[in-house]
């Protein structure tokens, strides 16, 4: 099979659009910098991966502790020492260590004369490097190590090819650290086949967020096995394995895991193997590798299907580059500075890294019940890695807009998992594991959003019925405190009490925080209600619609002497005291001051509860500004906006509903220009599987999702003079023109939709779904009259 076959699954019908401008970006892939977000807590990774790919081949850096990493997802730009190049990664997850990082493979210069696992401080079997010898591109990563070795990596969706080069005057060895996943492992296995020049094996692992102090011990468990098969272009000059501190030169098999702890509880445990090469005449070693979550045969079949036997790194890198360029061309921007283009297309790149394939080329995948399954009829692939609490606010909307077929397959994937999991939809799915991380019911909000935005290639009726059942029928796990507060097993915790009290009681909720749970469930129920109405399910729509207003039951108008806030309540109806707006008591990763704004489904109702739109807007001013009037949008103050976490990221757009849209325009622009940027620290915090990057993409386009379960979009001033949004596989496009877009013109003076004047600060969902033209007349000063009619504000 030719390397060109890599592109076959990615070819889509071109979308119709207006003629391109002379300054339109022709190849978006040229403007991607995978190193953005790799420092400062962004937790991105720079390695080789394809859109929604299974394999993500990237370095694991070390600060001198083999049981830990320099950053949550294995790579920190500020740490230039690596102990291997791991096969799997998840973009921007916040738990440290993060998810995956499976099977680090390390080119080592020297003799292996001791167990690499015994090198607990990574003093011998790791190497330093300089960024001058590092190059990260979409689908391709290479770096030269100070040891004289180098790694050049390129990937397809489920496989990869690598060139490892070594000095000619020193021993050349390749270490397979099979047990050394980021979180550790329960077990691992390696086999070396000298005759066939192959190394195969697997790691049995999981434990995402298992180190967390707030319930992580409940997640120190296994839920997936990754298989790999690597073949080489030459014979091995030497082989060996290790188990714990015992080195076995000449051995060809080894087994043993590390456990899921850190430090002394894990140091010195684990297994792996090594192969050596004679590089006297040729110092470049080529390796071809496939992976699978189903079987070793699946890994080898994936490799055969995706990478031709004689394909070079350059061949595979070129195919991967083309695949990325095709996906990124779903949005074609014109104008703008090079740093702005880089920030934009890198953000888009990060949003398209997930969900991730977990099905093989034959359609088999590991189910949440521990058994192998095949994709459903009409389903193209099984996807996983669902950071629901984060993604439902922005990333899933962008996925539905740009990649509706992938969104539908993802929706079906989550339904498949729920059916295999006793009807329970987990809020944070990693590979085939239910990790229970965070709070609320984001699956409901996500699938309702997909349906509202026109995604139809999934069993919508079956999914709705299942999610409705989860929202209305108490489950025994809802009374469990296992994993609480951060990983509570109940997906609708304390549901019977919630339905009776109409809020989650802080003293009986079996959740992270009663106030946060009430807000999250209100958002989810409102989204389900809107989906029910689209399905013609009037009874369920009315029932769930009423529940979408339960947020009112945790809004205390007298929380302080001067203002009302969302506040946790006890089961007897009393408010949890003492109350402090800066406190996170009753909330999850955020303060009462932040969560009070988390009512995107009913902003008019929230404003009414605060005393009217003008008073609400004045309070919102104080959320984004210090008492002296200066901006406060970089985080660090619990009373004000935090761009690094999700509960408040929609807040800048609330001014639209409050009748002061010019403040949305200046606030969004302030955040875009001061919080986001280029370079390793170009993201404000954990990318959270593309969520923070999706925020930036929407902000730059001048659009933002109004609320989960809806297709309507809120408007602000675009960053670029033109953008053409051409959804994959669709024949329509949405063209956004803003000729005066610049740093000095952030304000909206007028808007036209399909050539007609548009006097509201929101866009009907039909335009988002069906395309058309959107034209902005931008100004250098606020227009306090545009889109302020009280009867036409977003609701």
Automatic annotation (TrEMBL):
Q: Where is the Glycosyl hydrolase family 92 N-terminal domain?
A: 31-292
A GO cellular component entry from the record: cytosol
Q: Which residues form the Glycosyl hydrolase family domain?
A: 298-779
- Which organism's genome codes for this protein? Streptomyces iranensis
The superkingdom listed in its UniProt entry is Bacteria
Q: What GO molecular functions are on record for this protein? A: carbohydrate binding; peptide-N4-(N-acetyl-beta-glucosaminyl)asparagine amidase activity
What is a biological process (GO) this protein takes part in? Answer: carbohydrate metabolic process
The beginning of the lineage is: Bacteria, Bacillati, Actinomycetota, Actinomycetes, Kitasatosporales
Name of this protein? Alpha-1,2-mannosidase
């Amino acid at each position: 099979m030719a390397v060109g076959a890599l592109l076959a699954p990615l070819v889509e019908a071109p979308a119709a659009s207006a003629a391109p401008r002379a300054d339109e970006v022709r190849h978006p892939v040229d403007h991607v910098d995978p190193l953005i977000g790799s420092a400062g807590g962004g937790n991105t990774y720079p390695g080789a991966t394809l859109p929604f790919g299974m394999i993500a081949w990237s370095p694991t850096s070390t600060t001198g502790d083999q049981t830990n990493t320099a950053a949550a997802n294995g790579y920190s730009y500020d740490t230039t020492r690596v102990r291997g190049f791991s096969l799997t990664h998840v973009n921007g997850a916040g738990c440290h260590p993060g998810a995956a990082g499976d099977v680090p493979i390390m080119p080592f210069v020297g003799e292996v004369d001791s167990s690499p696992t015994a090198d607990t401080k990574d003093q011998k079997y790791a190497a330093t490097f300089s960024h001058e010898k590092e190059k990260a591109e979409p689908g391709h990563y290479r770096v030269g190590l100070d040891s004289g070795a180098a790694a050049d990596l390129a990937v397809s969706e489920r496989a990869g090819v690598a060139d490892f080069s070594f000095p000619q005057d020193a021993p050349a060895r390749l270490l397979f650290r099979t047990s050394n996943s980021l979180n550790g492992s329960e077990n691992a296995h390696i086999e070396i086949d000298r005759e066939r020049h192959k190394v195969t094996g697997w790691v049995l692992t999981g434990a995402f967020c298992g180190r967390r102090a707030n319930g992580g011990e409940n997640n120190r468990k296994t839920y997936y096995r990754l298989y790999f098969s690597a073949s080489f272009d030459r014979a091995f000059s030497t082989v060996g394995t290790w188990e714990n501190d015992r080195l076995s030169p000449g051995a060809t098999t080894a087994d043993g895991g590390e456990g899921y702890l850190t430090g002394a509880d894990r140091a010195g445990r684990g297994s792996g193997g090594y192969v050596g090469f004679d590089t006297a005449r040729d110092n470049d070693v080529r390796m071809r590798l496939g992976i699978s979550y189903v079987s070793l045969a699946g890994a080898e079949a994936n490799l055969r299907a995706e990478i031709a036997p004689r394909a070079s790194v350059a061949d595979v890198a070129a195919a991967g580059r083309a695949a990325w360029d095709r996906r990124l061309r779903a949005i074609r921007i014109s104008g703008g500075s090079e740093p702005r283009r880089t920030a934009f297309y890198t953000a888009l790149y990060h949003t398209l890294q997930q969900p991730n394939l977990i099905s093989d080329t034959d359609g088999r995948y590991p189910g949440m019940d521990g058994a192998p399954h095949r994709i459903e009829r009409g389903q193209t692939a099984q996807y996983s890695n669902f950071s629901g609490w984060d993604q439902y606010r922005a990333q899933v909307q962008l996925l539905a807009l740009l990649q509706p077929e992938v969104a539908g397959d993802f929706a079906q994937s989550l339904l498949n998992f729920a059916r295999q999991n006793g009807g329970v939809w987990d809020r944070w799915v990693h590979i085939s594991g239910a990790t229970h991380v965070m709070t609320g019911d984001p699956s409901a909000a996500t699938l309702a959003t997909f349906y509202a935005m026109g995604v139809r290639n999934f069993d919508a009726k079956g999914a709705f019925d299942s999610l409705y059942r989860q929202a209305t029928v108490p489950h025994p796990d809802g009374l469990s405190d296992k994993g609480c507060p951060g990983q509570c097993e109940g997906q609708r915790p304390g549901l019977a009490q919630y339905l009776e009290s109409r809020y989650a009681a802080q003293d009986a909720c079996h959740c992270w925080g009663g106030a946060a749970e009430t807000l999250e469930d209100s958002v989810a129920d409102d989204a389900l209600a809107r989906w029910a109405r689209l399905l013609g399910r009037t009874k369920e729509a009315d029932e769930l619609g009423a529940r979408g207003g339960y947020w009112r039951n945790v809004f205390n108008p007298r929380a302080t002497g001067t203002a009302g806030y969302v506040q946790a309540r006890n089961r007897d109806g009393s408010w949890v005291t003492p109350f402090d707006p800066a406190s996170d008591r009753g909330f999850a990763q955020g303060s009462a001051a932040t969560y009070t704004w988390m009512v995107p489904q009913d902003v008019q109702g929230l404003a009414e509860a605060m005393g009217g739109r003008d008073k609400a807007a004045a309070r919102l001013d104080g959320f984004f500004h210090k008492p002296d009037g200066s901006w406060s949008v970089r985080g660090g103050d619990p009373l004000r906006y935090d761009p690094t976490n999700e509960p408040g990221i929609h807040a800048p757009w609330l001014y639209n509903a409050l009748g002061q849209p010019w403040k949305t325009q200046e606030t969004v622009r302030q955040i875009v220009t001061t919080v986001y940027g280029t370079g390793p620290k170009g993201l404000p915090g954990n990318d959270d599987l593309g969520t923070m990057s999706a925020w930036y993409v929407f902000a730059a386009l001048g659009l933002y999702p109004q609320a989960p379960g809806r297709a309507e979009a809120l408007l602000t001033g675009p960053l670029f003079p033109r953008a053409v949004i051409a959804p994959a596989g669709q024949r329509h496009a949405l063209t956004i023109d803003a000729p005066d877009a610049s740093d000095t013109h952030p304000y909206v003076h007028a808007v036209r939709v399909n050539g007609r004047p548009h006097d509201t600060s929101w866009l009907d969902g039909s335009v988002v779904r069906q395309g058309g033209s959107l034209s902005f007349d931008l100004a250098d000063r606020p227009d306090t009259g545009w889109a302020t009619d009280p009867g036409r504000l977003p609701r």
